[in-house]
Each structure stands twice: as C-alpha cells, then as structure tokens.
Amino acid sequence: MDANHHSIYHDQIDAYLRDELSIEEKALFEQSLKNNPELLHEFRIHQELFALTDESVWINESFIPSEEEVKEVETYFRSTEAKKLKNTIAQAQINYQKGNRFSFFNNRLFLPILAAASIALIVILYTFNSNNSTRDLYVEHSRWKDLPSLTSRSDENQLAEGQKMFEQKKYQESYSLFKNYVENNDQTSPSVLVYVGLSALELNKYEEAISYFDRLISSDAVDQSKGYWYKALVYLKQDNEDRAILILENILLDEQNYNFNKAKVLLKKMQ
C-alpha cells in the first residue's frame, strides 16, 4: 500500500472513530469497509488502538491518591528512574517521526497512545512499588497486639501506667515512664525493654529504640530474640531496606527465634 493510500485511509478512519463524519459520509465509509479489504484491515487496527486510548480514562477516574501518596509520586517523578522513562518516550517519538512517516500511526493517534501507555506504566510501577514499600510493611507489622502485660505486677505502678499510656498511643508519656524506670533499676525485664524501645520507635527516636533492642538481644533472657524482630521494624520505618533484610536473615538462622515464620514471609516480600 503506498503512502497516499495510508494518508487517505488514516484520515477517513480517524474522522469515523471520532464521530466527525456526516450521516452521508459515514454511510459511504461503511460501504467502503465492505468493499475494500485493505481499508477494513487498517480500520480494525485503528479501532483497537483507539479503544486502548479511550479505556485509559480509568487512570484519571479511579486512581485518587492520598496526600502522602501524592508526595511519593512527586518524589518518583523527580527521580533518575522517571527521567530515564521520560527520555525513552521522547526518543521513541523522535524515532517514529524520522522513520515511520507513512505508517498507519500518525501523530494524532500515536501520541495519545504513547501518552496513555506511559501513564499506565508509571501508575503500575508506582502501585507495585507502593504495595511492598518498607513503610507499608512497617505499618502492616506495627499493630502491637501481642505485647506482654505489665499490669499484673501490682508493685510496679509505674510500669502499669506506662503500659496504659502506650495503649492509649500517648507515646511521649509512656517513653518517659519506661525510660525513667530503666535508668533507675539495675535489672530490667525483657518486656520493659520492648515497651521502652517501641515507645522510642513511635516517637521516631530510632537510635534510642535500637539501643534498647540491642540490650534485649545481648541479654540472657529466654525471649531475647524479640529484639531482632523489633530492630528489623525500626529499619523498616526508617526505609532502610538493606539493614532490615540483614536482621530478618539473622532471625531465619534459628527456627526458635521470635516471629520466625513472619520474618520468612516479610523477607520474601522484600526480595
């Protein structure tokens, strides 16, 4: 098929798909489709591509990110990866304009398709990365439902009050109470170290949290391995994936370690 036919066919097909033809012109075009196999073949290709660009509207209608997600997407667009994608798309357009002037693609159809495809790719990549981001994984594992109770120790009102503050998400108060207790007692139970470490973690006092969990790890307590698990969560919240993975791998060295199975699943999600 020569270039003139390509151009004529494209203009006719484009006008038909965009509903720009009059009733008479539409009838004549549909008759031509029945009598011209080349035109019909070209039309079917255009029709599929046109449907693709039309269906891409779902991105605008259903993808309504939160304020935090918007910030993450903005960060992505400024990243080297996003710039490479932008350059790739721009180069594809240049290559097309240089070498494919008479293809059934022309700028009016090709560019919307390219734009839709690039947007869809970015959304898919963002969604995939977001689903398994270290911050999301931290949120998933930081519900603090399995913490030990300190209220049974009637002689330690300070600990009971600290637990109460922690459960009410008053982390500054719980941190102050537990920290004071740890500093004024030579022997500290593993449970108290967990609470003071998690209180520090909730306040983004990462170094303090790690120091308390390291203290638990180096103790001779039966449940000292809890320190590894909570230390991994510190690194998750910090978005320090490499260190979190190292800690999780350490947990998997012994099936008796605290949250061994959870660590295995979490590590798989991160790799």
UniProtKB/TrEMBL annotation:
This is TPR repeat-containing protein. The keyword Transmembrane helix applies. It comes from the Bacteria. The chain crosses the membrane at residues 109-128. The keyword Membrane applies. Keywords: Membrane, TPR repeat, Transmembrane, Transmembrane helix. PROSITE patterns: TPR. InterPro entries: TPR-like_helical_dom_sf (IPR011990), TPR_rpt (IPR019734). TPR repeats lie at residues 190-223.
